[in-house]
Amino acid sequence: MADTGYIYPGTVVNDTSIGSNPTPAWADPSNAKTSNDSYAIVTENTTGGTTNYLYAYNFGISIPSNNLITGIAAFIERKRITIGTPCYDYEVKLVTAGGVLSTNKADTLTGWPTSDAGESYGGSTDTWGEIFSPSDVNNVSFGFVLSVSTNGLYPPIQICVDCMYMQIFYTPIVYVIDSFIM
Question: What tens digit of pLDDT does each residue of 107-154 get?
C-alpha cells in the first residue's frame, strides 16, 4: 500500500450551504491551509447553533489511474477559546465534484480542547462508505468540510481551526492474465 503523505489544501473557504442563523461566517478561512497558529475563526455570540462549513480542497493530488483508493484520512488541528461553553464537531464530510457526501465522521460527543490539538477522521482502510477512483480524488474540488456546533450556554466562544489536511491511501491494481502453451 502506498500513500500521498500529508497533503495540505491549496484553498480553504467559508461555505454557507450549512449553518444556523445568525452564526457568522468563518473569518480568514485561508488561515487553515497550514499549521502556523494563524486561525480560521468563528465567534459565536448567541445561544448556540452550527457554523457554516469550512471547506478545504484543491489538494493537488495526482494518483495514477491504475490504482485502487483504499483509505482516506482527514486531519483538523483546532481549539476553542472559552472556559464555559464547549463546542463539538457537527459534520466532517468528504466532498467530490458532485458535492458534499453523506457519511459524517464527526465526533459529536467530545468537546474541543482549549489548546491546539489535532483530530483525525477516517484512516488507511476507511473509504467513508464510498468507492473512489483516482480521478475522483485527483479532482480539484475533492476535499472535506467541517461544521461545528455550540450549546451557547455561556457565549461568546471563539472556534479556531489552525490547519486542515489529508492523506490518501492506495494500492496498484494488478491484472492477472492466464496464458498457456499448446
Answer: 999 999 999 999 999 999 999 999 999 999 999 999 999 999 987 666
Residue type, 102: S
Residue with cell 457568522: 24
| SS3 annotation, the chain | CEECCCECCCEEEEECCCCCCCCCCCECHHHHHCCCCCCEEEEECCCCEECCEEEEECCCCCCCCCEEEEEEEEEEEEEEECCCCCEEEEEEEEEECCEECCCCCCCCCCCCCCCCEEEEEEECCECCCCCCCHHHHHCCCCEEEEEEEECCCCCCEEEEEEEEEEEEEEEECCCCCCCCCC
Domains identified in the chain and CATH numbers:
2-172 (2.60.120)
* This model's pTM is above 0.90: yes
* Burial of 15 per CB tally in 10 Å (0-12, 13-18, 19+): buried
Closest CA relative to residue 4, chosen from 171, 133, 175: 171
